[in-house]
Design brief:
With 208 residues, the chain is an alpha+beta fold. It has one domain. The protein is 16% helix and 47% strand. An eight-stranded antiparallel β-barrel has the order 1-5-6-7-8-9-10-11. The protein starts with 9 loop residues before the first helix and ends with a helix.
């Protein structure tokens, strides 16, 4: 499990607070942190990978239905006192393939305050990388989810391996985290849908 640090989004903490306050009075006080225990993050790929000669397929525990990929949440935390939120997706990822060449990116780690998705990767028969920023958050509309933009690091890999043009800052797709936490035993399980809320909160912070 990766070390959980850096700041996270206020959105998750505020949702958890609202849900807990609606529980009985004995459960109204939140602990300093809420452990993430599961659920998933969906990513709808909107980039025209076919135009780049690429196909995408899930690997590990990831699944796909059309252009929508689902990555199980394997850990993470929401810090209620500082509004930090970090989400792990170990053991799953996406394989990008052109002909006999494949590049794998996975073990996605969402840091909502930094506005990044980092992860590990490898090229079939080639070098690998660990803990690299793969995507940056965009400021697209909340409805589709959190806009994911190609980072310069991932764009560089795609250019070097597949001869793709520089995709830095281009939209890869939209993420829709659906997170489950245990705030305190008396409150039971809370199912938190982060669709759009992270985007809205981030855009408001940027506008201040």
């Amino acid at each position: 499990m990766k070390t959980l640090r850096n700041s996270g989004a206020a959105a998750l903490a505020s949702l958890a607070m609202a849900a807990t306050l609606s529980a009985p009075a004995a459960a109204a006080t939140l602990p300093p942190s809420l452990a993430l225990i599961g659920n998933f993050t969906e990513v709808e790929v909107t980039a025209d990978l076919a135009a780049l000669g690429l196909t995408a397929a899930p690997f590990g525990s990831a699944t796909a239905s059309g252009a929508v990929f689902t990555f199980p949440v394997t850990g993470g935390v929401v810090f209620t006192d500082t509004s930090e939120a970090l989400v792990e997706h170990d053991g799953s990822g996406v394989a990008l393939t052109a002909g006999v060449t494949s590049a794998f990116v996975g073990n996605f780690f969402i840091d909502t305050e930094a506005g990044t998705v980092s992860g590990d990767g490898a090229v079939l028969g080639g070098a690998g990388f660990l803990g690299t920023t793969l995507f940056n958050f965009g400021t697209g509309d909340a409805l589709p989810g959190i806009e994911l933009l190609f980072s310069s690091d991932l764009a560089g890999v795609l250019s070097a391996v597949f001869g793709a043009p520089d995709l830095t800052g281009a939209t890869f797709g939209y993420a829709r985290p659906d997170l489950q936490v245990i705030p305190i035993p008396a409150a039971g399980l809370l199912l938190i849908s982060a669709l759009g809320t992270l985007v809205v909160a981030r855009r408001r912070r940027q506008a201040v």
